[in-house]
TrEMBL record, chain A:
It comes from Helicobacter ibis. This is Nickel-dependent hydrogenase large subunit. It comes from the Bacteria. Belongs to the [NiFe]/[NiFeSe] hydrogenase large subunit family. Heterodimer of a large and a small subunit. InterPro entries: Ni-dep_hyd_lsu, Ni-dep_hyd_lsu_Ni_BS, NiFe-Hase_large, NiFe/NiFeSe_hydrgnase_LSU.
TrEMBL record, chain B:
The chain crosses the membrane at residues 358-376. Its main location: other. It is found in: Cell envelope. This is Hydrogenase small subunit. Heterodimer of a large and a small subunit. It comes from Helicobacter ibis. Pfam families: NiFe_hyd_SSU_C, Oxidored_q6, TAT_signal. Its cofactor is [4Fe-4S] cluster; [3Fe-4S] cluster. Keywords: 3Fe-4S, 4Fe-4S, Iron, Iron-sulfur, Membrane, Metal-binding, Molybdenum, Oxidoreductase, Signal, Transmembrane, Transmembrane helix. SUPFAM superfamilies: HydA/Nqo6-like. Residues 86-232 form the NADH:ubiquinone oxidoreductase-like 20kDa subunit domain. Residues 252-334 form the Cytochrome-c3 hydrogenase C-terminal domain. NCBIfam families: hydA. The keyword Coiled coil does not apply.
Length: 578, 385
């Protein structure tokens, strides 16, 4: 007898996500369905606008990966217009990218994903002295783990937990769940780092703001280059960047890396995090230049988990389809030709397992029909995983020296075989490796900038002209913290004719395609055993390992000028909302 | 103290005394204790309270009250809802700066529901929301991030196993809130998803509830603006005084232009002509490359972002007007000056009017004409011309 569970909302992510699974009598997941339940419409909103405005608008796709879409929108226009961006601007963009990677991965591990690994209620039982000694097992020079410091953390949380108000935002979670594997002492270490990381992420955000004006939503990129020329030419600003960079990089090496090594040791026998990836195809793209010819990440494709072979990436083979998505068009189309009209079919009534484990009447996804606002991107007809794991796997296949060094070191430090990378645990580990890549080698971009400035080159923005009589098309492809991102633009009559974003979470979170092939979220859940149907921590942990960014992944459409009237339900609201 | 100030002061004092009598939500967690635990001295705290008082545009004599307000702040439960949004406002709040004092304040406001930060998921998360609404009926502060999609009866956003729409959820939580803050431009004015052609008919929070809503716009707003509003509520027991767009005057009463670090260059007619030119290297005014500072009401030029690290105009890019209603439609192209198209374009906000004088009724030729006059007369002085 199968049972159906709904997890909605999935919290500690960006955006609105629902997961439904069907389990058999042994609580093993047989089928999984990933659904985004929000649709906003940014791609259609940027149409008919000045191409120079697009970067600012598409940046608002996401306030977490805030810089990613901004740079993508600006770069797509530059590609279309054939602009060569000055080297100084390229390096400053790289530094902002480094800042984003450091910030984003830190916040993800500690504040969004950390509570899937660390049981804070168990930390209250720890012996701070023992915990302090234990920290040296995972780091030569641990941070925020002195016995006194750990004791203070413990007391602070104890007071918090025993107050009348209870656990506040930590209330009602799956504490005490059987798949939590850290000892109380280990939990205390991670908890201390959780609090410390709240401070460090502020510094990482300032790191971006030095050249970016603010974070989230920096504002110093313009088509042709960057605008922060005064900051670039100010040695005190450069020094400020360097100091803050070192502080954040230090935390990555002494806390974040150590905590993931510790997680690898303690969770390596937990089946729910070691079940292999369902989709073993990976795609990644070069990103973060560190000088005139080298990038931190490599380009290519790895199929079936075979890292002995790197396949070339052909842009023409990227398509999106909407068989199970709430849009009309079902045929796979290349992003330059993407067309879509919303076709919301909503939920159906169904009996599912309620919060007490008994059947309950709910709204549920229409499993054989359309069930998500996310489309299904495919490469040559196949689903692909994108993200830090893909960047590491492709980097290994490409024999990228920096990635190879860091990944090899991690496998050595944990004693894990390379196959262990292709799991929920491996996906979480890949994120720290990517973060470490920025922490260890991002400095090269800084040095390249300084060396170039010494030559007297002060160029920051290339001149250009948009010819209203010409048609242009261009794209950005790169690798942002959640994986391979691409933006595709067509310009006509001096305005945006169409715009499509194929974003990392779309690749990973999309529903099935016309051949009923599952995307990475769904495939990664199938086969997982759930201990307690009312506390599906295993689902949360695996889904969080992808770092879902759902507002990013939701499409809007109509790139071929279809009438939008169909979903202008309330014409009074359009244009003026006061 | 003059009479008005005196009456405000006693009002605030009475309010604080009243709050003090309320039972603490968290018994063992007073701010005083918390500060001690974090090694922050009373002296540092008072310094901070002084700064916050100035920020709220209150006389210095109010500083002790600000401090007391912070001390009772732990009595306020907060519910934070996510509608159609990008989570940038939540992220902005996480960047709370300084010695961590405002993050402490945030901590000591009892955060009952916040999807990006809370540990619980699924039914357990929904339960937290229901419990908080019930338990703190009439006492909680509601903060809403994101626009509210209203097309398809709100079904462009659903949350939870029962498929509740964002619209229903926002309305339900608004019913019994003690105060409602629309955090960010999306919640205040609809934001990016409400830009033309607004395919989901997204609306500001104030358009879907009949309860009073204070708008805290900005894309995103600074965390100081959020905290300042909560303090105002605690101090006076009323919502702060607002301008025509329901923005608190203390934060949105001045134009970006008024306190801009490049204002001297504007007055001297020294402009950046194109990004990366000599003027850009010298920090000239960004008006001619599209700065919307003269039309935008916010305190960015004073407070900046990320612990005063920078702000757009410091980083050489003009203001895009992100705290103004419908700015995506009315302020673009963002890298061209308004003056070029001012006479035939509807525009919200005026360059030479104070925030509270600007209303929809005043969006006619008068305000626009005055703005254009100010701008054009300055451009005429432009040395490069």
């Amino acid at each position: 007898m199968t049972k159906r569970i709904i997890v909605d909302p999935i919290t500690r992510i960006e955006g609105h996500l629902r997961i439904e699974v069907i389990v058999d009598e042994n609580n093993i997941i047989q089928e999984a369905y990933s659904s985004s339940t929000l649709w906003r419409g940014l791609e259609v909103i940027v149409k008919n606008r000045d191409p120079r405005d697009v970067g600012f608008m598409v940046q608002r796709i996401c306030g977490v990966c805030t810089y990613s879409h901004y740079k993508a929108g600006i770069t797509a226009v530059e590609d279309a217009l054939g602009i060569e961006v000055p080297f100084n601007a390229q390096m400053v963009r790289a530094l902002m990218n480094v800042s984003l990677v450091l910030h984003d991965h830190l916040v993800h591990f500690y504040h969004l994903h950390g509570l899937d690994w660390c049981d804070i209620t168990s930390a209250l039982k720890a012996d701070p002295k023992k915990a302090s000694e234990l920290a040296f097992k995972y780091s030569k020079n641990p941070i925020a783990t002195g016995a006194d410091e750990l004791k203070a953390v413990q007391e602070r949380v104890k007071k918090f937990a025993s107050g009348k108000q209870g656990l506040g935002p930590f209330a009602n979670a799956y504490w005490g769940h059987g798949t939590y594997k850290f000892t109380p002492e280990q939990n205390l270490i991670v908890l201390s780092h959780y609090l410390k990381a709240l401070e460090i992420q502020r510094v990482a955000a300032q790191l971006m703001a030095i050249f970016g004006a603010k974070q989230p939503h920096p504002q110093s990129l313009s088509v042709g280059g960057v605008t922060c020329v005064m900051d670039i030419l100010d040695p005190s600003r450069l020094g400020d960047w360097l100091t803050k960079y070192k502080e954040v990089a230090d935390f990555v090496n002494r806390a974040y890396y150590a905590d993931v090594v510790m997680a690898a040791e303690m969770y390596k026998n937990e089946p729910s995090v070691l079940k292999g990836c369902g989709v073993k195809n990976f795609i990644s793209y070069e990103e973060i230049p560190v000088n005139k010819s080298e990038f931190l990440y490599s380009t290519g494709i790895v199929r079936n988990g075979d890292i002995s072979k790197l396949l070339p990436l052909e842009e023409d083979l990227i398509t999106e389809e909407a068989t199970h998505s709430w849009y009309k068009e079902d045929k796979p189309l290349h992003p330059y030709d993407g067309e879509t009209e919303p076709n919301y079919t909503g939920f159906v009534d169904a009996d599912t397992i309620g919060p007490d484990g008994k059947p309950i009447h709910t709204k549920a996804l229409q499993l054989d029909g359309k069930y998500s606002w996310i489309k299904s991107p495919r490469y040559n007809g196949e689903p692909m995983e994108v993200g830090p794991l893909a960047a590491i796997v492709v980097g290994l296949a490409a024999k990228n020296p920096r990635i190879t060094k860091i990944a090899t070191q991690f496998l050595e430090d944990t004693g894990l075989p390379v196959e262990a990378l292709f799991t929920t645990l491996g996906r979480t580990a890949a994120r720290v490796l990517e973060c470490k890549l920025s922490a260890d080698y991002g400095i090269e971009a800084f040095n390249s900038l300084v060396e170039n400035l010494k030559t007297g080159d002060q160029a920051t923005c290339a001149p250009y002209k948009i010819d209203n009589n010409k048609e242009y098309k261009g794209r950005y492809i790169g690798n942002v913290p959640r994986g391979m991102l691409s933006h595709w633009i067509r310009i006509k009559n001096g305005v945006v004719q169409n715009y499509q974003c194929v974003v990392p979470s779309t690749w990973n979170a999309g529903p099935k395609d016309s051949k009923e092939q599952m995307g990475p979220y769904e495939a990664s859940l199938v086969g997982t055993k759930i201990q307690d149907l009312t506390q599906p921590l295993e689902i949360i942990r695996t889904i969080h390992s992808f770092d879902p960014c759902i507002a990013c992944s939701v499409h809007v459409m109509d790139t071929k000028g279809h009438e939008l009237g169909e979903y202008k339900i309330d014409p009074i609201a359009i244009g003026c909302n006061i | 103290m003059d009479i008005i100030e005196e009456s405000l002061f006693s009002k605030a004092e009475a309010r604080l005394n009243q709050l003090k009598k309320l039972p603490a939500l968290k018994k063992d967690r007073s701010i005083t204790k918390a500060l001690k635990e974090h090694g922050i001295s009373r002296r540092d705290f008072m310094k901070w309270a002084g700064a916050m008082t100035a920020m709220l545009s209150l006389p210095a004599s109010f500083a002790p009250l600000t401090a007391r307000a912070a001390e009772v702040a732990d009595r306020l439960p907060v519910i934070w809802l996510h509608m159609a949004e990008c989570t940038g406002c939540s992220e902005s709040l996480l960047r709370s700066d300084g010695p961590g004092i405002d993050s402490l304040i945030f901590d000591y406001i009892s955060l009952e529901y916040h999807e990006t930060l809370m540990a619980a998921s699924g039914y357990q998360a929904e339960q937290n929301l229901e419990d908080a609404i019930e338990k703190y009926k009439g006492r909680y502060v509601l903060m809403v991030e994101g626009g509210v999609p209203t097309a398809l009866e709100g079904q462009y956003l659903t949350i939870g196993a029962h498929g509740m729409t964002g619209l229903e959820s926002a309305r339900k939580a608004s019913e019994n809130a003690a105060a409602i803050f629309a955090i960010g431009t999306c919640s205040s004015f609809g934001g990016i998803q409400a830009a033309n052609p607004n395919p989901t008919a997204s609306k500001p929070l104030s358009a879907v509830t009949n309860k009073p809503v204070i708008n805290v716009p900005g894309c995103p707003p600074s965390e100081k603006n959020i905290v300042g509003n909560v303090l105002h509520f605690i101090l006076f027991g009323t919502l702060p005084s607002v301008d025509a767009f329901n923005r608190p005057k203390w934060a949105y009463g001045l134009r970006i232009h008024d306190l801009c670090e490049r204002r001297g260059h504007f007055d001297a007619g020294e402009f950046v002509q194109t990004f990366g030119d000599e003027g850009a290297k010298n920090g000239y005014c960004l008006y001619k490359v599209g700065c919307k500072g003269p039309y935008t009401f916010n305190n960015c030029s004073k407070l900046r972002f990320n612990s005063h690290t920078s702000w757009p105009i410091q980083a050489g890019h003009g203001c895009i007007g992100c705290s103004e209603p419908n700015f995506w439609d009315t302020m673009g192209p963002f890298e061209e000056p308004m003056a070029n198209r001012l006479f035939n374009t509807p525009m919200f906000g005026g360059a030479d009017k104070t925030a509270d004088n600007i209303g929809i009724a005043l969006l006619g030729a008068a305000a626009i004409g005055m703005a254009a006059h100010a701008v054009l007369s300055n451009i005429k002085k432009d040395k490069e011309q």
